[in-house]
């Protein structure tokens, strides 16, 4: 059960890039504090950003001003400060090969600053960010489809490629994925739980014996967290949106008050009765309880691992287990990707970079070193999984995960659904509370 960390074998080209610091998402997030904001950035991205901020503690404070496009550069890429050092190396290599000047610029709020700059034709040619920004970007007309061959498409994991699609078109090249799993303190819980009921029972036994304070922890908070609640809401076939004839998310078919979603919410109510869900647990509290060895299980994402390692806790990563009656919790899948701006000053060069560089194993491995997320390119994922059991475990935990809806209507979901789940954990009737959330979400979408 002891965790081992293997150094990933990478090629000499990627080895040149290891000077970058680690730290998503959505970087995303995931992002990634966990409360949904009115801007509707997903909670995973907010928690991920918080984790990266911790890693950057002690560094000089970065400017919060939006970057200004370098007029002397023929290919401009915007990203966050974590990935920028790696991208700079690859962009310079691309520039040498094609005889052009490149520039990688750091944006402190990539999503908003890109939208603002694109509106005045001052944006980059390429922007790096979370897949769930896609619908809004397409709606605003600020990104272009990526012309990816079928052979290249087949090089990526199926779910990561699916996350780059909107209305049947590919709008980005994916490079990393993330999802929730069970992080287990192996000193307290040596074996992976077979069911959620077993997880709760084992955790409660440890509490009763005085060896733990909580049977498990995950983010709820007083305002709720729809991202962390989703695995339960989806466990019986429920969720947020239904799908259209093309298999895409249908904003006109909100299923928050469906029987299946309510059944999942009833499991949340049961978990709350067992003190496995608690509105007093926010992101910092969750991390603290697990790092101090006061709970055997933490349902969270890879952005929490640096804190666990810093606490010198031996751990394992498991998929979220099923319920005994067959309920199968399905977490969200977050994907990080490269977009090509519709206002790119050099669209041909932008398409060439994302298709010929981002799709290489060397570059995907270099980006892995910065974020420690499972790569989206299958060959890169196989390489790191063979050397790093964490990545293999995260990949298994994310198997079958549902790509987070990338339609603009998700902006109407985070706050109402998050608050509804917090209220359910506090004792509100699941059916009544989700029916009210459904009405609010539908109203918000219609505005």
Protein traits:
447 residues, alpha+beta, D-Maltodextrin-Binding Protein, domain 2, 2 domains, globular, carbohydrate transmembrane transporter activity, maltose binding, SBP, signal
- Determine the structural class based on helices, strands and strand pairing: alpha+beta
Overall outline: globular
Structural Rg: 21 Å
CATH topology of the largest domain: D-Maltodextrin-Binding Protein, domain 2
Major beta sheet, specifics? 7 strands, mixed
Uncertain residue segments? 1-40, 50-62
Q: Which CATH-level-2 architecture of the largest domain?
A: 3-Layer(aba) Sandwich
- What is the number of E strands? 14
Percent of residues in β-strands: 5-15%
- The helix fraction, in percent, is 25-40%
- Oligomer classification: single chain
CATH class of the largest domain: Alpha Beta
Task: Average the pLDDT over all residues and give the rounded result.
Answer: 87
Discrete helix count: 18
Supply the number of structural domains.
2
Provide the CATH superfamily of the largest domain. Answer: Periplasmic binding protein-like II
Distance between the termini: 52 Å
Q: What report would you give on this structure?
A:
By secondary structure, the chain is α+β, with helices and mostly antiparallel strands. The chain folds into two domains: 237 residues, D-Maltodextrin-Binding Protein, domain 2 (3-Layer(aba) Sandwich); 190 residues, Periplasmic binding protein-like II (D-Maltodextrin-Binding Protein, domain 2). It has 18 helices and 14 strands. Strands 1, 2, 3, 4, 7, 13 and 14 form a seven-stranded mixed β-sheet that branches. It has a three-stranded antiparallel β-sheet with strand order 11-8-12. Strands 5-6 form a two-stranded antiparallel sheet. Strand 9 and strand 10 form a beta hairpin. Helix 14 packs across helix 15 and helix 15 packs across helix 16. The protein starts with 11 loop residues before the first helix and ends with a helix.
């Amino acid at each position: 059960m002891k965790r081992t960390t293997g150094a990933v074998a990478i090629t000499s080209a990627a080895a040149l890039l290891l000077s970058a610091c680690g730290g998503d998402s959505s970087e995303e997030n995931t992002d990634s504090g966990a409360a949904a904001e009115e801007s509707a950035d997903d909670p995973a991205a907010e928690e991920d950003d918080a984790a990266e901020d911790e890693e950057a503690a002690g560094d000089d404070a970065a400017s919060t001003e939006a970057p200004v496009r370098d007029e002397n550069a023929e290919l401009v890429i915007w990203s966050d400060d974590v990935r920028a050092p790696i991208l700079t190396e690859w962009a310079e290599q691309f520039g040498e090969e094609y005889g052009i000047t490149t520039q990688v610029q750091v944006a402190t709020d990539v999503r908003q600053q890109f939208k603002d700059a694109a509106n005045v034709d001052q944006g980059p040619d390429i922007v790096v960010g979370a897949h769930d920004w896609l619908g809004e970007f397409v709606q605003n007309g600020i990104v272009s489809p990526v012309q990816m061959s079928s052979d290249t498409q087949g090089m990526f994991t199926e779910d990561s490629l699916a996350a780059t699609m909107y209305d049947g078109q590919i709008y980005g090249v994916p490079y990393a994925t993330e999802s929730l799993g069970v992080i287990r303190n192996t000193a307290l819980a040596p074996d992976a739980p077979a069911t959620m009921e077993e997880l709760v029972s084992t955790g409660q036994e440890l509490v009763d014996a005085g060896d733990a304070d909580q049977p498990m922890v995950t983010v709820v908070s007083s305002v709720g967290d729809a991202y962390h609640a989703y695995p339960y809401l989806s466990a019986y076939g429920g969720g947020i949106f239904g799908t259209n004839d093309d298999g895409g998310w249908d904003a006109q078919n909100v299923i928050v008050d469906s029987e299946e979603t309510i059944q999942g919410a009833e499991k949340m109510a049961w978990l709350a009765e067992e003190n496995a869900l608690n509105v007093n647990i926010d992101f910092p509290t969750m991390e603290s309880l697990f790092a101090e060895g006061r709970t055997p299980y933490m349902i969270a994402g890879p952005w929490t691992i640096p804190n666990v390692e810093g606490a010198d806790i031996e751990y394992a990563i498991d998929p979220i287990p099923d319920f005994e009656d067959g309920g199968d919790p399905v977490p969200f899948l977050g994907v990080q990707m490269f977009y090509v701006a519709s206002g790119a000053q050099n669209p041909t060069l932008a398409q060439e970079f994302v298709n010929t560089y981002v799709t290489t194993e060397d570059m995907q491995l270099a980006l892995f070193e910065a974020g420690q997320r499972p790569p989206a390119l299958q060959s890169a994922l196989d390489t790191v999984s063979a050397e790093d059991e964490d990545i293999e475990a995260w990949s298994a935990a994310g198997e079958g995960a549902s790509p987070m809806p990338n339609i603009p209507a998700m902006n109407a979901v985070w706050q109402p659904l998050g608050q509804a789940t917090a209220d359910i954990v506090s004792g509100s009737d699941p059916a009544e509370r989700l029916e009210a959330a459904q009405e609010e979400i539908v109203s918000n979408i219609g505005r």
